[in-house]
Amino acid sequence: MSMDTGDLGTFYRNLEEILDLEPGTLKGGEALADLESWDSVAAMGFIGMAYEKYGVTIPAIRLPECKTVDNLSTLISTR
Amino acid sequence: MNTSILAIECHLPSKVVSNQDLAAEFPEWAIEKIQENTGVMQRHVAAPEECASDLAESAARKLFTSGVCSPDEVDYLLLCTQCPDYFLPTTACLLQSKLGISTRAGALDFNLGCSGYVYGLGLAQGLIHSGQACKVLLLTTGTYTRFVNAKDRSTRTLFGDAATATLLSASAAPGEFRSSFVCGTDGSGAEHLIVPAGGMRQPCSSETAQEVTDDKGNCRSANNVYMNGLEVFSFTLRAVPQCVRQVLGRSGKRLEEIDLFVFHQANLYMLEQLRKAIRIPREKFCLCLESVGNTVASSIPIALKEALDQQRLKAGQTVMLVGFGVGFSWAATIMEWPMVGCAVHTVSSTDQVESKESTPSRS
Lengths: 79, 363
Description:
The complex is a heterodimer.
Chain A: H1 5-19, H2 40-54, H3 69-77
Chain B: E1 2-11, E2 15-18, H1 19-25, H2 31-38, E3 42-45, H3 52-65, E4 76-80, H4 91-99, E5 106-110, H5 116-129, E6 135-142, H6 153-156, E7 162-171, E8 180-185, E9 193-194, E10 212-213, E11 219-220, E12 226-227, H7 229-251, E13 260-263, H8 268-278, H9 299-309, E14 318-325, E15 329-336, E16 343-347, E17 353-357
Parallel strand pairs in B: 4-5, 4-6, 13-14
Antiparallel strand pairs in B: 1-7, 2-3, 6-7, 8-15, 9-12, 10-11, 14-15, 16-17
């Protein structure tokens, strides 16, 4: 199950803040491996964001399954 | 029969490893960013000949020197450590002898890390409430840096060595240490913060000493501590907010009624995420790892002592302590700090004893 368009936009803005990217940068299809600021600290920020803003706890073991930005949003929406 | 904390004392090894020292040794480690995330600027490291019992002995001697009690008044010694001097005998037994505590006293080690101090308070309260002890000396101590591989950025930047001594006593006065305790365990997370070799499951060998470099460039062997930071963080978000809700429920308190929150000082980023998730006001939330790092079981008493020394924690106030980490294990307690007629001894940075008679005033 994926997020609806409005929620996706909010998700991208939240993730942009973690990755220190300009708002509007992310469109969803970006490969995480290509995002220079996607590192272990950003991953921790994503887990924290998932809890704080979406009320879900993400097991860290699920993160390597995510290859794109939209995979991260799906990870949240399916918890 | 209630229980009072009469005194807390700390001991830090003299050797200090600063972030500048680490940056000089490993220029590629991006120390500034690590500092920003961990909140640690320096950590104390035990000397090669120093064991956990040596650090604990120093902390205990400071407590006795303060005059709060003499060694022969202690009738139970609890030692929290994951770095015992030997597999056997019990390190607490060694300390009984070193400190001149009565041979009629009980003494035991319990093996916990980050949750250990809160568990220790609960054990001490149980011993006192059940009439098994009147004066319990709770020691926390560790030489975690001994487990750390010098080339492992994920752990070397974080952990520091320390020991603390807390004296708890039975008290007939009402209103003291009306503590509620909550604890929890999830051993399925054991693999995420572990020293794989050196115990009975996998003794040290030439094989376990083989160093491996992971995909992040961190180097360690099975003889070294391994920590999966992301999994530990995910665990804290699962366990700690719920634990806080449970201990509030058990104590009948609301979050707003807590005057001070002292969490295990894991790392700055994790603490800030927890603070925001639980909605704890910044001014009530203790942060005390900049100059000592993550000292495992000693982190809460070190932060408590600092709060006392800075008068952030006063008599009559309500404090929540939350320990969480290796195991996975967690525990929380809410206590009212000693009221009128109960002296709380703290030792200032110059090691001069200050004995304050507490008052019921609240901030």
